[in-house]
Amino acid sequence: MMGTVWAVVPAAGRGTRFGGETPKQYLVAGDRVLLAHTLEALLSHPVVAGVMVVVAEGDTDWPGWQSLADKPILTCTGGATRAASVLAGLQALPDSVRADDFVLVHDAARPNLAAADLGRLLEVGRNDPVGAILAAPVRDTLKRAGDDGGIDATEPRARLWRALTPQLFRRHQLARALQEAAAAGIEVTDDAMAMERQGLRPLLVEGSEDNFKVTTPADLSRFEFELSRRG
């Protein structure tokens, strides 16, 4: 039987503010900051043993949590990019997390993760040699724009998916993939992209459209509505 996994949550981005000086993950929704909802969604799953939160240097908003749901919350300092912060988090994990153990990586400002989606990702991903990501099929019509702002073409959407998080990979494989992408001067936009550069093919696990990232005030209002529905 497979054991537990740890999660890495990069929360060190400096371009993460709207409508003020508070980083998105520390905005309040339902009497708690977004990051608290995110960590609760992860740690409520019995397979998740703990979380490494990667914070910015000098982060004065970090509440100093050390545990949640009787599971440890550790912190480390991140880098200038999301990829650098994920790598820092992987390297700071406890020694009990072995090189070939699977690790979840989840966005700090993606608080509406469904337990069923997380469970499905863990079940499918840990039975694959590479791992898996939550994703959603593209359902909108896609247009390619020209330099003048006009439409150049309509792009086929068949087989196109939107990458979500969490993403699930083995600790050492992901760390190596991120290191090699950085050495090549390539800024990867998600962890799966780094793995793809290694010639690896992570699985796509369909997740809910409600697993959105809070990037605008409208997203925050949407999450507050989701919380009200739960209540």
TrEMBL record:
The record marks 157, 213 as: Positions MEP for the nucleophilic attack. The keyword Calcium does not apply. InterPro entries: IspD, IspD/TarI, IspD/TarI_cytidylyltransf_bact, ISPD_synthase_CS, Nucleotide-diphossugar_trans. GO terms for molecular function: 2-C-methyl-D-erythritol 4-phosphate cytidylyltransferase activity. Its EC number is 2.7.7.60. Pathway: Isoprenoid biosynthesis; isopentenyl diphosphate biosynthesis via DXP pathway; isopentenyl diphosphate from 1-deoxy-D-xylulose 5-phosphate: step 2/6. It catalyses: 2-C-methyl-D-erythritol 4-phosphate + CTP + H(+) = 4-CDP-2-C-methyl-D-erythritol + diphosphate. Pfam families: IspD. Transmembrane segments: none annotated. It comes from the Bacteria. Catalyzes the formation of 4-diphosphocytidyl-2-C-methyl-D-erythritol from CTP and 2-C-methyl-D-erythritol 4-phosphate (MEP). This is 2-C-methyl-D-erythritol 4-phosphate cytidylyltransferase. It comes from Stenotrophomonas nematodicola. The lineage of its organism: Bacteria, Pseudomonadati, Pseudomonadota, Gammaproteobacteria, Lysobacterales.
